[in-house]
Design a protein that fits this description.
By secondary structure, this protein is of the alpha/beta class. About 35% of the residues lie in helices and about 15% in strands. It is built from six helices and eight strands. The longest helix is centred in the N-terminal third of the chain and has 37 residues. It is globular, with a radius of gyration of 29 Å. The N and C termini lie far apart (about 90 Å).
């Protein structure tokens, strides 16, 4: 009798368990169908930092286009960590260069104004001789204030004040590439790149040996140095002091 009663209890418990599982599955199914019907936008409800991370894998133009998706996405792109404006001109820009420049200037001014003071990881910019040197200077200054880590500047304009002195004391900078084919590089008296590991200089016109030497000696952990098509005016000798510099194969 004792054994028979025990067996019945076990069977009873199994039936209860099966009943509970069935009820749970039913609730899950109804919950899923409920939200499938509503077509919930699961991506849009993600927190901003995660959306910024997702957009960082897109090129800048595609990331900016997400602003038209909804009100939720309108300003998300302004806080992404990477901006690449090396190829911002359209294919037919030569038909109306002035109008193209005006649109880009207005966009950049707006982007700088809208963007918060959060950290910026990468910023790439290319401007030709038709660009406004004063505006370029202000954009670079704004980017530096966002503690940019990787900076590429390709400036083909003739104006000498496009590079703000604050660039040369940008402590967080890890990688810097300058292409200035028509520009003298005016080095300030104060230069400090405590974290700079990569320095690439193309078409630079140097004309002060002491400040030029100070540029390299102010990069204590510099590992990668590339110089191409540079001009050394009024300079007979140049000493590059970079103890951490790695020699190429």
């Amino acid at each position: 009798m004792h054994i028979i009663c025990s067996t019945r209890n076990v069977r009873g418990e199994e039936k209860i368990t099966e009943s509970k599982q069935f009820t749970l599955k039913s609730k899950v199914t109804l919950y899923s169908e409920k939200y499938m019907d509503r077509r919930v936008d699961w991506i849009s409800i993600l927190p901003d930092p995660l959306l910024h991370h997702i957009l960082s894998f897109l090129d800048t133009k595609c990331a900016i286009r997400t602003s038209i998706l909804s009100k939720r996405w309108k300003y998300i792109w302004t806080s992404i960590p990477n901006f690449d404006f090396l190829n911002w001109r359209g294919a037919d820009y030569h038909l109306d260069v002035e109008s193209d420049n005006k649109k880009f200037v207005n966009f950049m001014d707006g982007m700088i104004r809208l963007r918060d003071m959060s950290h910026m990881r990468k910023f790439y910019l290319k401007c030709d001789e038709s660009s406004n040197g004063f505006r370029i200077n202000s954009w670079i200054s704004a980017v530096i204030s966002r503690k940019v880590e990787e900076l590429i500047l390709i400036l083909e304009a003739d104006e000498p004040d496009e590079i703000p002195p604050s660039l040369f004391t940008c402590g967080p900078l890890v990688s810097l590439e300058l292409q200035l084919p028509n520009l003298y590089l005016r080095l300030p008296n104060c230069i400090s790149f405590p974290r700079l590991k990569v320095l690439r200089l193309f078409g630079i016109n140097f004309r002060d040996d002491l400040l030029t030497e100070q540029l390299f000696s102010s990069c204590p952990i510099l590992e990668d140095l590339i110089m191409r098509d540079c001009t050394w005016l009024y300079m007979e000798n140049l000493c590059i002091s970079a103890p951490a510099l790695k020699l190429g194969d």
